[in-house]
Write a structure and sequence with these properties.
Elements: E1 3-4, H1 13-23, E2 36-39, H2 43-46, E3 49-50, E4 54-57, H3 59-67, H4 72-80, H5 83-87, E5 93-94, E6 101-106, E7 109-114, E8 120-127, E9 130-138, E10 141-149, E11 155-160, E12 163-166, E13 172-176, E14 179-185, E15 188-196, E16 200-210, E17 213-217, E18 222-224, E19 229-231, E20 235-237, E21 241-245, E22 254-258, H6 269-279
Parallel strand pairs: 6-16, 7-20, 8-21, 21-22
Antiparallel strand pairs: 1-3, 2-4, 5-12, 6-7, 8-9, 9-10, 10-11, 11-12, 13-14, 14-15, 15-16, 16-17, 17-18, 18-19
Length: 284
């Protein structure tokens, strides 16, 4: 049991993380990934932060609990069996994207497309026929599609036509403001995404993993560690394919395609060294 006797209501970050992990990264009643930390023991009475006494509630259920419409006993029962852990998947959360143009920024590289009629789509990153990032524009709607895999090739997070869904398998998941962060371990980010409605998404840092391919995203460049390829300051406009890696049964045209690439064998030290040497002295 993690306890800290505070001087304020601010919950220490390690306790916040412990609560998120225990609650399945969402409201314990409905699974909503937008939530608030709620002391089940009244703060005014106990004035302490103990992880086991804190739960996650979305804004609606938090207000209902505060106003007395949601009984404390029901919150405690849900805390023992959080929604996301019981379901094995989060409640879908709809992202608010729209418009006739979509912009995706990945490590300082820009992928954009405008509505050109029925079937307008773009695949900024695809590996072995699996679109890791996909965009669809139709009738004024910008639909974002995304899948994030872990090192075991297990899908951890999906965005399907703007609906965000995740499995509570990651070490940590946070949606704070407009930024979604998945962590593999302490200070080890799997992906960090900034949603910029109505029509822009920024992949700020992290890793795209699939079938032994590792694509590292930095603030100003992309590094494919399998063959030490650095992609920097590139722009693709109205190009169906962006970064296309591996075998695709149905060929995809793109601004950067790689087939026959070697697969990740466990060490990316040489690629990281190459990246450091190549970018040394450049204005990044």
């Amino acid at each position: 049991m993690n306890e800290e006797k505070p001087n304020s209501r601010n919950i220490p970050l390690p306790i916040q993380r412990e609560v998120r992990q225990r609650c399945g990264f969402g409201c314990v009643i409905c699974g909503m990934p937008l939530y608030e930390y709620e002391h089940m023991e009244e703060w005014a009475l106990v004035k302490r932060h103990i992880a086991d006494e804190i739960t996650l509630l979305c804004d609606q259920h938090h207000r209902e609990k505060t106003s007395g419409l949601l009984p404390k006993e029901q919150v405690r029962r849900a805390n023992e069996k959080p929604f996301n852990l019981q379901e094995g998947i989060s409640k879908p959360y709809l992202l608010h994207f729209s418009g006739e143009e979509a912009i995706v920024e990945i490590g300082g590289n820009i992928f954009s497309c405008k509505d050109q009629g029925y079937g307008t789509a773009m695949v900024p990153i695809s590996v072995d026929g699996t679109p890791l990032i996909g965009l669809i524009i139709a009738d004024g709607h910008f639909l974002l599609n995304l899948v994030i895999f872990n090192e075991y090739n297990t899908p951890i997070l999906h965005i399907k036509n703007n609906q965000l869904i995740f499995k509570p398998l990651a070490w940590d998941i946070q949606l704070v403001g407009t930024t979604l962060t998945l962590r593999e371990n302490h200070r080890k980010i799997l992906i960090e995404i900034e949603f910029c409605p109505p029509n822009k998404v920024i992949f700020k840092r992290g890793r795209f993993l699939r079938n032994g391919i590792e694509i590292l995203v930095r603030p100003t460049n992309i590094l494919i560690t399998n063959n030490s390829t650095i992609i920097k300051n590139c722009t693709a406009v109205n190009c169906y394919g962006g970064l296309i890696i591996g075998y695709h049964e149905k060929a995809i045209g793109g601004f950067f395609a790689m087939d026959g690439i070697s697969r990740y064998l466990g060490s990316n030290k040489e690629a990281l060294k190459f990246e450091k040497e190549s970018l040394q002295g450049s204005n990044i």
